[in-house]
């Protein structure tokens, strides 16, 4: 099973700043099958990015995804208080299995 | 507008079998390309994928749980059903169903069903 390791575990930033979240894979991934989610307390996850860099419907362009092979990133520019949440990366691979990272908690102070 | 809603017992006893139902609205489960999955999340922990079923009834499972899981669908009732046998307290958590898009991302989620395993 492919393991996804996210860093940092927690990120504390101020409104207006830029956040860069990292997702590293134990094996090379296909960019077509890498996604990012946002989950706020008590809510279901929400898809932000699929195909490594394509924003889901209704997601503001402050959110952008990038990366390739074993390292992918989610960048959130112009942070707003509502961006406080846990962010997960996810992949689907040749082993016909989906895996998620352990999450990065983003705090907007 | 497509919506998903999970339903099932909130409390099960150890060794019992859990049956959860996901009811889709606004989507035909037999339409070509439609795929759905079950994902769970223990309290305070990360998401864990469990199983997937496709429009043509193809199925895949998380390897480590394969012997305990079964996913099925009833297209006429717009439902996807997950059964998990031999439940233990470690299986406590919120169980979500989700639709899968063309990039194998989960683009639509239900509100989740909280399941507690306790005697």
Question: What is the element layout, followed by pairings?
Answer:
The complex is a heterodimer of chains A (109) and B (119).
Chain A: E1 4-7, E2 10-13, E3 19-25, E4 34-39, E5 46-50, E6 54-55, E7 63-68, E8 71-76, E9 85-92, E10 98-100, E11 104-108
Parallel strand pairs in A: 2-11
Antiparallel strand pairs in A: 1-3, 3-8, 4-5, 4-9, 5-6, 7-8, 9-10, 9-11
Chain B: E1 3-7, E2 11-12, E3 18-25, E4 35-41, E5 48-54, E6 59-61, E7 69-74, E8 79-84, E9 93-100, E10 106-109, E11 113-117
Parallel strand pairs in B: 2-11
Antiparallel strand pairs in B: 1-3, 3-8, 4-5, 4-9, 5-6, 7-8, 9-10, 9-11
Provide structural commentary.
- The complex is a heterodimer of chains A (109) and B (119).
- Chain A has 109 residues and is mainly beta.
- Helix content of chain A is 0%, strand content 51%.
- Chain B has 119 residues and is mostly beta strands.
- In chain B, the strands form two sheets. In chain B, strands 2, 4, 5, 6, 9, 10 and 11 form a seven-stranded mixed sheet that branches. Chain B has a four-stranded antiparallel sheet with strand order 1-3-8-7, with no helix packed on it.
- In chain B, strand 9 (93-100) and strand 10 form a beta hairpin.
- Chain B is globular and about 40 Å long.
- The model of chain B has no long low-confidence stretch (mean pLDDT 97).
- Chain A binds chain B through residues 1, 32-33, 35, 37, 44-47, 50-51, 54, 56, 88, 90, 92, 96-103, and chain B through 37, 46-49, 52, 60, 62-64, 96, 101, 103-112.
């Amino acid at each position: 099973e492919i393991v996804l390791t996210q860093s940092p575990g927690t990120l504390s930033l101020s409104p207006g700043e830029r956040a860069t979240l990292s997702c590293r894979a134990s094996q090379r991934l296909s960019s077509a099958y890498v996604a990012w989610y946002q989950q706020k307390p008590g809510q279901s996850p929400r898809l932000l990015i699929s195909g490594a860099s394509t924003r889901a419907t209704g997601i503001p362009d402050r959110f952008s995804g990038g990366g390739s092979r074993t390292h992918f990133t989610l960048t959130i520019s112009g942070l707003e208080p509502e961006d406080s949440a846990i962010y997960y990366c996810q992949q689907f691979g040749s082993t016909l299995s989906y895996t998620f990272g352990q999450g990065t908690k983003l705090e907007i102070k | 507008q497509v919506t998903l809603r999970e339903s099932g017992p909130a409390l099960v006893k150890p060794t019992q079998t859990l049956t959860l139902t996901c009811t889709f609205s606004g989507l035909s489960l037999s339409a070509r390309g439609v795929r759905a999955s079950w994902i769970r999340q223990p309290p305070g922990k990360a998401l864990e994928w469990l199983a997937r079923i496709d429009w043509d009834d193809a199925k895949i499972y998380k390897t480590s749980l394969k012997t305990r899981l079964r996913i099925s669908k009833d297209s006429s009732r717009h439902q996807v059903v997950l059964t998990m046998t031999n439940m233990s307290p470690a299986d406590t958590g919120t169980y979500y169903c989700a639709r899968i898009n063309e990039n194998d991302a989960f683009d639509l989620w239900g509100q989740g069903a909280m399941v507690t395993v306790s005697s």
